[in-house]
């Protein structure tokens, strides 16, 4: 954050944009994976914004569903009413009780979902007669949202720094499961997982196992590290530790969930299920702002048996128009078998990235699952040494890519003080093979131009 300037520059817009110095170009339309700028230039939305637009833009079924619902009912406060889109969306998501998740709580976005997940875990502790459970364990190199509770849970040091005095001390952090940087030379995957599990166990012991309400993690780390799945067996080990100590497991699938990694939920590839799950982005695909918390039967039953009410609420809970949009998004994904395309196009994307960057001096890692892939840029490939953060390489790549009609999602993460640059790709699930090839072609040109 910069210090105050003596003379303020003229305001370029009445909207407080991400940058107060520049106004981004106006988006005026979209179709499929393309966004249209004022003036007519078309840009490939290669990361769906921030892994949001899972069906691309202006999908006719979603537009029609929104129009239908808007003509009928947009909003009715949940203090008085429920509504059909919310009931139907909950049925769609948890009607079959996947992994024991039995009820859904609809909010307006990812940070709200994470806040609700944290508070649910705390309330579960109280309802089950364990008021000492006030502590949460999270991981460094994670992002859980920008509101104060979610930011406290996150491990993105740069985003947290200005607000450190406001953040909650209830959260402590252990190492991420990040083999590229964390696995020691000569250490096999099982040994790495065992070391991470030992560290988590030690943190439970340090805090007192009876004081921990929950462990929270992203199954595939998104924004902070760039599409990092955990090594095989990691989440089974985590689940066992949580169970042993009576703590809940919260999975934050705000970015990695709702089909992004090739299964509807990322945890379905880990052989475990969470007690509480946060979802957002791909839930509504950007057609409406919506997030949700999916809650295990035993957690909602404890509340029903206890105080009988989740002590948390927002004005826009179960917003009818937002739920109608999300319901149609989820129906399209299911009815059109789009997860198969996520898997097939995800494999093609990985293959094309490997062809283009596999021998690149400055691309150290190409990783991810489904249509959730990233390249990590390094100064020195053999030593996995990152570029000087002052170069803000990821920002330069973003700029070069945008100039070539490609919107991608770059980031710089910090792992125990080491910052790395990555570029994240998360195209819509409807992406075609030739569009995958074009994305990689344009990204290749942008990386070469930025270096
Ligand atoms: N959790 C994860 C894993 C995310 O990636 C994000 C956003 O990028 C959030 C939470 C916060 O979601 P939102 O920006 O909708 O508040």
From TrEMBL:
<dbReference type="InterPro" id="IPR015422">
    <property type="entry name" value="PyrdxlP-dep_Trfase_small"/>
</dbReference>
<keyword id="KW-0808">Transferase</keyword>
<keyword id="KW-0663">Pyridoxal phosphate</keyword>
<dbReference type="InterPro" id="IPR015421">
    <property type="entry name" value="PyrdxlP-dep_Trfase_major"/>
</dbReference>
<dbReference type="GO" id="GO:0008483">
    <property type="term" value="F:transaminase activity"/>
</dbReference>
<comment type="similarity">
    <text>Belongs to the class-III pyridoxal-phosphate-dependent aminotransferase family.</text>
</comment>
<dbReference type="Pfam" id="PF00202">
    <property type="entry name" value="Aminotran_3"/>
</dbReference>
<dbReference type="GO" id="GO:0005829">
    <property type="term" value="C:cytosol"/>
</dbReference>
<dbReference type="InterPro" id="IPR005814">
    <property type="entry name" value="Aminotrans_3"/>
</dbReference>
<protein>
    <submittedName>
        <fullName>Aspartate aminotransferase family protein</fullName>
    </submittedName>
</protein>
<dbReference type="InterPro" id="IPR015424">
    <property type="entry name" value="PyrdxlP-dep_Trfase"/>
</dbReference>
<dbReference type="GO" id="GO:0030170">
    <property type="term" value="F:pyridoxal phosphate binding"/>
</dbReference>
<feature type="region of interest" description="Disordered">
    <location>
        <begin position="1"/>
        <end position="20"/>
    </location>
</feature>
<keyword id="KW-0032">Aminotransferase</keyword>
């Amino acid at each position: 954050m910069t210090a105050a300037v003596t003379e303020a520059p003229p305001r370029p817009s009445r909207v407080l944009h991400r940058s107060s110095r520049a106004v981004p170009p106006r988006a005026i339309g979209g179709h499929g994976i393309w966004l249209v700028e004022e003036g007519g230039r078309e840009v490939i939305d290669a990361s769906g914004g921030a892994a949001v637009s899972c069906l691309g833009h202006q999908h006719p079924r979603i537009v029609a569903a929104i129009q239908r619902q808007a003509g009928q009912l947009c909003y009715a406060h949940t203090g008085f009413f429920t509504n059909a889109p919310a009931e139907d969306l909950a049925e769609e998501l948890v009607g079959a009780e996947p992994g024991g998740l039995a009820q859904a709580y609809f909010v307006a976005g990812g940070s709200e979902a994470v806040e609700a997940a944290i508070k649910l875990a705390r309330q579960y502790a109280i309802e089950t007669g364990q008021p000492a459970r006030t502590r949460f364990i999270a991981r460094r190199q994670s992002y859980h949202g920008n509101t104060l509770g979610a930011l406290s849970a996150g491990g993105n040091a740069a985003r947290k720094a200005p607000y450190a005095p406001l953040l909650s001390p209830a959260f402590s952090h252990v190492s991420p499961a990040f083999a590229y940087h964390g696995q020691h030379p000569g250490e096999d995957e099982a040994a790495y997982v065992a070391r991470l599990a030992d560290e988590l166990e030690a943190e439970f012991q340090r805090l007192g196992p009876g004081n921990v309400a929950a462990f929270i993690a992203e199954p595939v780390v998104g924004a902070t590290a760039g599409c990092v799945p955990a090594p095989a067996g990691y989440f089974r080990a985590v689940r066992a530790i949580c169970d042993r100590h009576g703590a809940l497991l919260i999975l934050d699938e705000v970015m990695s969930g709702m089909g992004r990694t090739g299964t509807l939920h990322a945890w379905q590839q880990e052989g475990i299920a969470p007690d509480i799950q946060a979802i957002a982005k791909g839930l509504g695909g950007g057609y409406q702002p919506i997030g949700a918390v999916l809650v295990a039967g035993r957690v909602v039953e404890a509340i029903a048996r206890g105080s009988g009410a989740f002590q948390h609420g927002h004005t826009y809970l179960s917003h009818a128009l937002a739920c109608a949009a999300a319901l149609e998004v989820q129906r399209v994904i299911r009815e059109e078998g789009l997860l198969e395309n996520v898997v097939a196009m995800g494999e093609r994307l990985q293959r094309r990235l490997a062809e283009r960057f596999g021998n690149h001096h400055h691309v150290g890692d190409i990783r991810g699952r489904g249509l959730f892939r990233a390249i990590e840029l390094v100064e020195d490939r053999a030593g996995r040494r990152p570029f000087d953060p002052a170069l803000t390489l990821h920002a330069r790549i973003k700029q070069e890519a945008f100039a070539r009609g490609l919107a991608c999602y770059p980031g710089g993460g910090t792992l125990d003080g080491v910052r790395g640059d990555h570029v994240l790709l998360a195209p819509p699930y409807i992406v075609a093979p030739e569009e995958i090839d074009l994305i990689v072609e344009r990204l290749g040109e942008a990386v070469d131009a930025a270096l």
